[in-house]
Design goal:
Largest sheet: 6 strands, mixed
Oligomer: single chain
Structural class: mainly beta
Strand content: 35-45%
Number of strands: 10
Number of helices: 1
Order of helices and strands: EEEEEEHEEEE
Amino acid sequence: MSTSTTASVSTHILDTSLGRPAEGVPVRIAARAGRSAHEGQEGEWQALGGSATDADGRCKDLPALPEGITHVRLDFAVEPYFLKKQADAQQDAPANRDSGAGVFFPEVAITFAVVPGEHYHVPLLLNPFGYSVYRGS
């Protein structure tokens, strides 16, 4: 939950190739302070922890952001999700076992700016050969 001195972040993933939530995708969150008037440079990324998407494709328990954060990075480890989907599909259709070309985007990293007091919901729309993100509500 955001306060007047912090921002908060939530996310979810929709697998647009299936029209369903993507369950079990690990998500890590990192943050940094932006440029300061006296330093003139970006701060170092600070790992805050992570979670995994639930059956609804949501991460409801991402760690809170510390005060002074101006940039957030969400790292989605999507390769295991797609490899599991490919393995499940191969069990259903054994003739297609050798047709998989692996995973084109093994991970997705999204970096965005935040201001204190705001909540940021950042959904990931995912398919095997592309993705898109937006600021949700």
